[in-house]
Specification:
Blueprint (H helix, E strand, L loop, with lengths): L10 H8 L4 E6 L4 E4 L1 H6 L4 H4 L12 H8 L3 E7 L5 E11 L2 E11 L1 H21 L12 H15 L7 E4 L6 H14 L9 E5 L6 H9 L15 H4 L4 E5 L8 H10 L1 E3 L6 E3 L3 E6 L9 H7 L3 E3 L8 H23 L2 E6 L1 H8 L6 H16 L10 E6 L28 H13 L4 H10 L6 H10 L3
Parallel strand pairs: 6-11, 6-12, 7-8, 8-11, 13-14
Antiparallel strand pairs: 1-2, 1-5, 3-4, 4-5, 9-10
């Protein structure tokens, strides 16, 4: 091939290239390998002779050379995760002959051990920091100013000199309202505001569809109040001396007056009873809605002395999201160790982390947790196939439940007619047709995006590899 006459070198030069500790690949403008040194072949358990002539994506699905050919520019990646679980530092450049692109070359180094050591150090520091925290609020991960402000207000609900106070927690579904309520409870015990054996009673107010049943559950009932009734404590009595957590408090419509009376007077009267029972209860009301618009003004005034807002995951910083991701990885690893005595080391590739951290999660942290767990499950072998007590798992893009990760709020309500365009077989056929026309993964992704198909270049490269193209 005239454009690559410079590759017709003597054996000495080839020996020098093969003696390098770095991998070296050279491709033509179609992405087919025309030279591979021995180190590059070792990285993928092959030989230079077997690799030459194959498309580079067969061995390196996210090869920097794909971008070099597509964009005709130099590319440097500080870290690339390969399907074999290794990590590489890559620099790739295009090759021009008489101003025309003829191919490209890449030089890359294996940095796996160094990166694994860094990951272990980061995880160890995180675990040590968690163990060293004695604060009841340490289970709430993050350091954004809005979250820190909410936690500080939460401390004051029970820790202020004039307290403790009732409070309201608002936030979207899955932002951690129940967790914050329990943190307040543990903090109240920690500082001695309530006794160490004080109760934490939680009730979802939305479960009640009948006003009378709701009143009996919350305030209790006396024997004889209706046919067959017996003396029964309500939730207020059960929570006496501790905390009553009213989740989905916007469903309080039918018994707000009874609740207001209990909070103002510090007493309750069972349904059908004639005796006022003194209570000492901290009430925490939580909701996904604005309770000021739902509750009676007097009730909101009493409950909302401290209105604690939990931001959705999309409003949290990347640093906070990384901390949350690490926390869920640590929990997964700890759970596997407790159940099977297996030392698990889970890592997410840079591309997988980028997709996860920039996704839109309508159900927030709860949904994020489930997707992290599902991704690790997909990357991990079945327990019956694990033969070693030490196991490394690399979670890459293909392990993510992509259909569950919205890229924006608009993705939540995608038109059902668009499903045809997202049909895997239809998309694969389009990709193969575009590939036959000489387009690289990035240009194919751009064409598909214009057609309304949401796909990234690395997903295109992966599909091409699966199809052997």
């Amino acid at each position: 091939m005239k454009s690559f006459e410079f590759l017709q070198v003597n054996d000495t030069f080839i020996d020098i290239i093969n003696s390098l500790n770095e991998g070296v690949n050279v491709v033509d403008k179609q992405g087919d390998l025309i030279f591979v040194n021995e180190m590059s072949a070792q990285y993928v358990n092959s030989t230079p002779e077997n690799m030459v002539g194959d498309h580079i994506s067969k061995y390196y699905p996210q090869a920097a050379l794909l971008e070099v050919i597509d964009e005709k520019t130099t590319v440097f990646y500080g870290k690339v995760n390969h399907a074999n679980g290794r990590k590489y530092m890559v620099k790739a450049k295009p090759i021009f002959v008489d101003g025309e692109l003829e191919g490209g070359f890449a030089i890359f180094s294996d940095i796996t051990e160094m990166e694994n050591l860094n990951d272990k150090i980061r995880c160890l520091r995180h675990k040590i920091s968690l163990k060293s925290k004695k604060d009841a609020f340490s289970n709430i991960i993050g350091s954004d100013s809005s979250l820190s402000s909410t936690i500080e207000k939460a401390r004051k609900t029970v820790g202020a000199l004039g307290g403790p106070r009732h409070c309201i927690i608002t936030g979207e579904s899955g932002t951690g309202k129940t967790l914050l309520a329990r943190c307040i409870y543990y903090y109240a015990k920690e500082i001695g505001v309530i006794k160490s054996d004080a109760p934490f009673i939680e009730i979802n107010c939305a479960q009640f569809t009948n006003k009378d049943i709701a009143a009996m559950e919350i305030f209790g009932c006396s024997e004889g109040s209706f046919t067959g009734s017996k003396d029964k404590k309500g939730l207020f009595e059960m929570a006496n001396g501790g905390i009553l957590f009213l989740d989905e408090a916007h469903a309080l419509d039918n018994y707000q007056n009874l609740l207001l009376k209990a909070i103002e007077s510090g007493t309750i009267r069972r349904i059908g009873g004639s005796r006022d029972i003194p209570i000492n209860v901290i009430v925490i009301a939580a909701s996904t809605k604005n309770l000021e618009e739902v509750l009676l003004p007097e009730l909101y005034q009493r409950l909302g002395q401290y209105d604690l807002y939990l931001p959705p995951l999309r409003e949290r910083s990347i640093d906070d999201k990384i901390q949350i991701l690490i926390e869920f990885i640590n929990r997964y690893e700890a759970n596997v160790y407790d159940k099977y005595n297996i030392n698990l080391n889970v890592m997410f590739s840079d591309e997988a982390k980028k997709i996860l951290l920039n996704g839109y999660y309508p159900r927030n942290i709860r949904q994020f947790r489930d997707i992290v767990n599902q991704s690790i499950d997909c990357a991990a072998p079945l327990i019956s196939n694990v033969k070693d007590s030490n196991l490394n798992i690399l979670v890459d893009v293909q392990h993510l439940p992509v259909d569950s990760i919205c890229t924006s709020e608009n993705d939540k309500s995608r038109n059902p007619d668009d499903k045809l365009k997202s049909d895997p077989e239809v998309v694969d056929n389009i990709i193969l047709e575009l590939r036959k026309k000489g387009l690289g993964p990035r240009k194919i992704a751009k064409v598909l995006n214009k057609k309304g198909i949401d796909i990234k270049y690395y997903q295109v490269a992966y599909r091409l590899k699966q199809k052997g193209s």
